[in-house]
Specification:
five-stranded parallel beta sheet, 3 domains, Aconitase, domain 3, four-stranded parallel beta sheet, alpha/beta, single chain, binds FE3-S4 cluster
Length: 388
């Protein structure tokens, strides 16, 4: 790999051990994937923030960088943490967990990271342009940035996105190269997709088929950003899709002898049926990926002047919640007995320790991960349906 004189100095430890370790990590990845050089990135988004997912070993890893004076070189946001950083007591999070989580947050703060814990940074101002190189790591954010915005990122790991944030560069391979941004599958969805959960179900179906390849979709209708974020999130969870195209809707559309797959209404119905394994519901979660203001509005209108019989937890970024506060949506939701939770998500918070066992969700991604990682049985449906 070619390194500039300045990169060589960092690699040789002349700018301290923290930057040296960071560039070593990037160069090691670059060698594995046969990158020719490092390229500048305009932003980073770091996964591996919740104490539930990184534990003490992960905390020590990031602490090494803060102890040795590392600072991020580009605008860097965090993924959801393990709890609402202000209202963690209302979630029922234990004090011992909260203390460990706050320690992680303070380490990131010291490194200069923007403490906006969200998987939808593109909804709160971090919105890269088409062709812009970035180093993001949360899989749904990666998928949205690559596909809907046309930015260029690989599916970074927590450590490599942190290294990229510190150096301000990443290795030039994978989806940073135009030649790899080509679809291998053409998916013709011959079904009217109405709700966000319909897109989640299509994503679960497609991700299982295409695994880590690139699908291109022909849809029967135009989609909203919320629907595309649900589609990408589900494909990143059931497969490892980091880039997709939608004909006439995404900035890129490039295919090379793709395998064609037709998806019918019965396929979507079957996925929905398979995702659900209970009709009991003690807990309803919406906001995987984090809710947009529009989604919160829909929920507020649905629950207005009603009193809920089960827990309804809505997950979003703090900045979007502040907008929802101003519009009165949060008040309507809270009056109905539900919670609007920031900084965290249903999967990376310890919900299995809060007594929940049967969770309803409209998210294809959350359906898979809540089963696998949080000991939940799932009831899957659209927002209106699960709130009912
Ligand atoms: Fe976001 Fe958590 Fe879902 S990080 S995409 S809400 S699993």
């Amino acid at each position: 790999m070619y390194l500039t004189k300045e990169e060589e100095r960092i690699y040789n430890g002349e700018e301290g051990i923290a930057k040296q370790k960071a560039i070593e990590l990037l160069v090691a990845l670059g060698k594995i994937y046969e990158a020719d050089k490092l390229i500048p990135v305009s932003s980073a988004q770091l996964a591996g923030v919740s104490y539930k997912t990184i534990g003490d070993a992960g905390t020590d890893f990031i602490k090494f960088f803060s102890d040795n004076g590392a600072k991020v070189a580009v605008n860097t946001y965090l993924n959801p943490a393990g709890m609402d950083l202000c209202d963690w007591k209302a979630m029922g999070v234990k004090k011992s967990f909260a203390e460990k989580q706050m320690k992680i947050i303070e380490i990131f703060r010291k490194i200069g990271v923007n403490i906006s814990c969200t998987c939808t940074p593109y909804l709160i101002g971090l919105r890269p342009s088409t062709g812009e190189h970035i180093a993001w790591s949360e899989s749904s954010a990666v998928s949205f940035a690559n596909s809907v915005l046309g930015a260029r990122t690989n599916r970074e790991g927590g450590p490599s996105s942190l290294a990229a944030a510190i150096i301000g560069k990443t290795a030039n391979y994978g989806y940073h190269l135009g030649e790899n941004r080509v679809a291998n599958f053409l998916i013709k969805a011959q079904v009217k997709l109405k709700t966000i959960s319909d897109f989640g179900a299509l994503g679960v179906y497609a991700g299982r088929l295409v695994k880590n390849k690139v699908p291109a979709f022909e849809l029967e209708q135009r989609s909203t950003e919320e629907q595309l974020k649900a589609l990408g999130a589900a494909m990143a969870a059931s497969g490892a899709v980091a880039l997709f195209f939608v004909k006439g809707q995404t900035p890129e559309w490039s295919l090379d002898k793709p395998e064609t797959i037709e998806v019918k209404e019965e396929d979507i119905k079957k996925v929905k049926k398979d995702l659900s394994d209970t009709e009991d519901v003690d807990h309803v979660v919406i906001g995987c990926p984090h809710c947009s203001l529009g989604e919160i509005k829909t929920i507020a209108e649905k629950v207005k002047n009603k009193q809920l019989k089960r827990e309804l937890w809505i997950y979003t970024s703090r900045a979007v919640k502040e907008e929802a506060d101003k519009k009165g949506y949060t008040k309507a939701i809270k009056t109905a007995g539900a919670k609007v939770i920031c900084d965290t998500c249903p999967v990376v918070s310890p919900i299995e320790d809060m007594g929940f066992r049967n969770t309803a969700t409209n998210s294809g991604k959350a359906s898979l991960y809540l089963k696998k990682l949080c000991k939940q049985k799932i009831s899957f449906g659209g927002i209106e349906e699960i709130i009912e």
